[in-house]
Amino acid sequence: MTGLMFLRDKADVEDLESKVTDKNYFMFRHKEKTSRPINTDLFDRSVDDSAVLRILRGDVDGIAFAELQKLLYTSAMSYCATTDLTKTNDKKSPGTFFEIFTGHLVAGQFGVNPERHTEVPSLDIQNTLPTDYVFDLGPGCNRIHLPIKTSTRERVVQVWAHQRVLDGLHGTNRFKGLLVAMTETNKQNDSSVVEVCLPGQWAVYQMYIAQMHRIYYLDVPQKYSVLNNTYPFIHVSPFAAFFGESESIAKASPLA
Amino acid sequence: MTGLMFLRDKADVEDLESKVTDKNYFMFRHKEKTSRPINTDLFDRSVDDSAVLRILRGDVDGIAFAELQKLLYTSAMSYCATTDLTKTNDKKSPGTFFEIFTGHLVAGQFGVNPERHTEVPSLDIQNTLPTDYVFDLGPGCNRIHLPIKTSTRERVVQVWAHQRVLDGLHGTNRFKGLLVAMTETNKQNDSSVVEVCLPGQWAVYQMYIAQMHRIYYLDVPQKYSVLNNTYPFIHVSPFAAFFGESESIAKASPLA
Question: Do A208 and B155 make contact, defined as CB atoms within 8 angstroms?
């Protein structure tokens, strides 16, 4: 957690005006550079290395849900905020870090390493297709499709489209789609913070492109939480919830 | 065509090493800045304003196919190359220009202005969904879905995904999907030119997400041309071809 050490020791903290109900945000500053918005309730400056190493080992038993949420958020956000303060226009490293971080945690829970391609069981075209992380959990288990994004914006339709391709190649409901995203916060020009969400479009994608099984966030956007309670019922929850339900997600079983 | 005047009068020309069989590319240079690769056979420095005004009016009768290809390519590429030479990191203006340029030409052929949203004929959710350009050609005609991109890269799955949403909302084959793109050229670090193409992925999208009716390019990539001749038979052709077939595309008729 050298990132968190840097933020604790070298960076200043500035509160931001939150336009998101019931959430508060601040940012780090180091000289002229400022970080992305950080959720005050989810970022825990006192996190120590041993706690982070525990979750990296997948050893989450006995960690309270709220504590696990903070550990996950603080670990991922420390890297991203440090990059914001130390690099110029580096949008790629935070995405790559978050993909590896999340892929590692999910692989730990499933006990299987992911692959980045799928076979194309077709009559006369190519044999493999590049994909996001996919997991083969073995006989009697679902397969997993795991797209990972720091934020989704308008690119999110890719997630449903790739799920549709997997459904088409291998049959509907053969792959369970789990999207893991960090946040949808946006720092506006006046330094206020909003969440950029398109819940109506997500509903249309879930109805007409494919069905995602879970959407996990480190900082769940308010407007996507609502999707849990209304048709077509997209299951949106904190990523911490995955650790308690990974076994039931893995198990192939009849639809409820 | 102030862009073309600028390029003719102020910019230098440098040949590029083409790694694309049977195509030659050059670039413009102005001081330290260089343009994207430009197809030597399709860019016509002698194009004059009156010819461009003719195609902007949709008055293409009597213009030979090869001539129309050059007029379209030169008009669009002049703006993009000028932006490359006069702006820093402006990727948005060329895209916006090409969208308006193409949308205007297609609207001229169909005699109808496009819209940027579609109704959602659903039981209990929102009434409209934002889209790429869509055209309502009236009774007895197809509707048109017109995504427009300077190049497609990995974002192209969006095109098939949005076609799938329209198929889901309004029925398969109600909207004919026409993608218009400029090129897939990429200038590498050694100043050679390649075309970045993923024909195997396009085939999978056409098989499992939705069916695009036409893919038009100003500079048709070689590897996508091949898709015309092999299952699932994606129809890829020069954008100039649209002007000769817009009437048959508009007319609702049984599938062949």
Answer: no
Q: Which residues pair with B237 in a beta bridge?
A: B216
How far apart are the C-alpha atoms of A181 and A234, rounded to whole Å?
15
Q: Give the tens place of pLDDT for each residue, B84-101.
A: 999 998 989 999 999 999
Tell me the shortest Cα–Cα distance from B223 to chain A, in angstroms. Answer: 14
pTM of the model: 0.94
DSSP B19: -
Rounded Cα distance between B253 and B256, Å, is 9
User: How far, CA to CA in Å, does B168 sit from each of A158, A212, B127, B141, B155?
Assistant: 17, 17, 15, 19, 21
Residue A253 has pLDDT above 90, yes or no: no
Query: Average pLDDT, stretch A38-43?
Result: 98
pLDDT at position A1 over 60: no
ipTM of predicted complex: 0.91
Q: Which residues of B touch A231 (CB under 8 A)?
A: 124-125
Q: Is A200 an interface residue toward B (CB < 8 Å)?
A: yes
Burial class (CB in 10 A: 0-12, 13-18, 19+), B255: exposed
Over the stretch A68-98, which tens digit does the pLDDT of each residue have? 999 999 999 999 999 999 999 898 999 999 9
Distance from the A163 Cα atom to the nearest Cα atom in chain B, whole angstroms: 10
The beta-carbon neighbor of B168 closest among A122, A165, A207 is A207
The residues, ordered by sequence, that sit 6+ positions from B67 with a Cβ below 8 Å of its Cβ are none
